[in-house]
Design brief:
alpha+beta; three-stranded antiparallel beta sheet; about 35% helix
Length: about 220
């Protein structure tokens, strides 16, 4: 594992929305990870923009998901960055204990003194992805990773929206509203089922049902 740069915030330091981010573009990261043999994918808001085929809003960071066991291969492909764990808004050195107790790892670029990418080390059972929000949600990686025409991997839109449903911030609502017309009947059905399971009674359920009636 890369050593933590001395210009990183000290161990335990708080990080927030003002943390110094200058994220890579997904295409830049894909070039850097082109030789990585692991099912990684762009997550969160960028995943939805990749599904839409255009960037629709600024993105504060770049988040990707990888199977937890594959994280060392990601780190090895990005030797120019120093990784550390993030837990409840605090940075920690990537010790074995810290990595076992967290899922986020921020990549620090010591040359620019900025963060470049947030790697989610996701639970999995072999080739089966396990949702960190609810372990009852288990899907093969082949079913959750989509690709753009240029080959960029990204999380299926219904799953990206599932993660956004918890906080439902203004940007999350805007992402849902913008992507909803693009969802297939199968994607809408899966999102409805997942919301019923993980966030029963969620406000998006009515919009999903209405969209299905319109499409039908």
């Amino acid at each position: 594992m890369n050593e933590i740069s001395t210009v990183l915030p000290p161990e335990g330091a708080a990080v927030d929305e003002d943390a110094p981010w200058q994220p890579l573009h997904p295409e830049q990261l894909a070039d850097l990870l082109s030789d990585v043999d692991a099912p990684w994918y762009v997550a969160a808001g960028w995943a939805l923009d990749l599904h839409r085929g255009e960037q629709t809003r600024p993105h504060h960071d770049l988040e990707i998901g990888v199977p937890r066991a594959a994280f060392p291969r990601i780190a090895a492909a990005l030797p120019q960055y120093a990784f550390h764990a993030v837990e409840q808004g605090r940075v920690l050195p990537p010790t074995e204990a810290a990595l076992a107790e967290t899922f986020q790892t921020w990549a620090w670029d010591p040359d620019g003194s900025v963060y470049r990418v947030d790697v989610f080390r996701e639970r999995h059972d072999g080739d089966v992805w396990v949702c960190r929000r609810d372990e009852r949600v288990r899907l093969p990686y082949a079913d959750i990773v989509r690709h753009t025409a240029a080959g960029l991997p990204y999380l299926a839109p219904e799953l990206a929206l599932l993660f956004k449903a918890k906080a439902c911030r203004p940007k999350d609502q805007a992402d849902f509203t913008g992507v909803l017309p693009l969802l297939t009947a199968a994607e809408r059905a899966r999102l409805r089922d997942l919301l019923d399971l993980v966030h029963p009674g969620h406000e998006w359920l009515a919009a999903l049902t209405a969209a299905g009636r319109t499409a039908g």
